[in-house]
Amino acid sequence: MNRRIFLKSGLASAAAIGVASAPLAWSARSGRVRDHLFIAQPARLNLLGQDYPATDVWAFNNMIPGPVLRAQQGDTVRIKFRNRLSMMSTIHWHGIRLPNAMDGVPGITQPPVKPGEDFVYEFPLPDAGTFWYHPHVATYEQIGRGLFGTIVVEEKNPPDVDDDITWAISDVMLTRDATISPNFKSLHDAAHAGRLGNIVLVNGERGPNVLDVRAGQRIRLRILNAASARIFRLRFHGHQPLVVAHDGHPCTPYRLTDSFHFSPGNRIDLILDCTGAPNSSFEVEDEFFPAMRNKIALIKYSSRSPQAARKPFEGLEPNALYEPVLAGAETVKMVLEGGALSNKATREAIWLMNGKGNSHGSHMDTHGHHPDPLFVFDQGCTVRCLIDNRTAWFHPMHFHGVVFRERLPNGEWGPFKDSTLVWPFKTQEIAFVAESAGDWMIHCHVAEHQHSGLMGTFRVASLCKTPVVPKA
Ligand SMILES: [Cu+2]
């Protein structure tokens, strides 16, 4: 075990979080069970419009994105996953707080599901919000060929809006005949910014997505970055939407006055008040590479006269999450090294976490080789983790099994998230409660980085005498 950290005693942390302050959501189940069948299989879909040939893809239930998994907070979902691909797979339910055995990580929480086999996932939905699902085997290829979908968990009292729209943004690398380029194990991509596609898709179709609105309307926008590697920098021309949730979890609302970085894995929920004039239209653009902008959406106003505007939006009801208790928190450091331009990178281990790579002989490992956990935490303790990015590349770091607050540049602690973008040669501190027992993944959500070294685990050991995760 390369780095092992134990708490001195579970008592202080158990007292700090306490059963009295335990989130209520786990016990607030509706008792309703919703059944779904998700079949991962090859399909042929038209991604570029009718003037172009269709593309051979991999898809859930013959759709890109896969079916929206829609339920209400407190429901239980039961998904029969049928693997009809030619390679092994699993499904990870990104951002959902669920029992470890349902987390969909091959070799850690379950054996990989072989071609032709089924696996049943069943878990309650403690939190309302926007989440998503995707395979955790050869993620770079399985997401890259089209396997992902959105999860919408509705609030018990949903906000008053005229429409509730999801934009699942992704990209795909197509050749001239609209075939997906099969070069998923490119050493260059793994060591640089990952595999960046040449076509940006919104809800599985080439952007921009046309959003038809009437002046005065209020639209809820749920945006997901489902790309395997591409970071977007989104700008809403002519509008200043209200940010109401990050990574599914409601935040204190604030207005978008500038473009914002939006990494793979991230979700953002916006309230868009349609303040434009009838017959006007406005673009939503990705300007991450200023010389290569992508049109994401077109907000197109009808000729109808404006409808009456609503009162200011006051925010969504927060999810009941464990609040980090910083006094006496366990403090750990995670050092990221390697990649192109680094003398630490080798062909076998392009990336390193705390000095270790996860590959074993191949630069692109299908499952991720899983050495001993990077950290061991006592269940219920608060963890402060300083992520030290000593590479020349962006890394959106995703932690399974917890939601964290990230330290903002002004020193304050920001809203709850499950993935944080760590800039080149910068550090990012996060704080979370190790809430649920098991081995959980930490990885970069640039899938090509994840599978070439930036993937590890932390263990939450149930050492406390007092169970801190409330029973159902
Ligand atoms: Cu990365």
Notes on the structure:
By secondary structure, the chain is mainly β. It has three domains: 10-23 and 321-461, Sandwich (Immunoglobulin-like); 27-154, Cupredoxins -  blue copper proteins (Immunoglobulin-like, Sandwich), CATH 2.60.40; 163-301, Cupredoxins -  blue copper proteins (Immunoglobulin-like). Helices cover 5% and strands 39% of the residues. It has helices at 10-17, 139-144, 187-191, 447-450; strands at 33-45, 55-60, 69-72, 76-83, 92-94, 118-124, 129-134, 149-154, 163-172, 199-202, 205-206, 209-213, 218-225, 232-236, 242-246, 249-255, 260-262, 267-273, 281-286, 294-301, 330-338, 351-353, 375-378, 382-389, 395-399, 404-407, 413-417, 419-422, 427-433, 438-444, 455-461. The strands form six sheets. The chain has a seven-stranded mixed β-sheet with strand order 11-10-9-13-18-15-16, with no helix packed on it. A hairpin with a 7-residue loop joins β19 (281-286) and β20. The longest helix has 8 residues, at 10-17. It is globular. Residues 395, 444, 446, 449, 454 line the site of copper (II) ion. Copper (II) ion binds at residues 395, 444, 446, 449, 454.
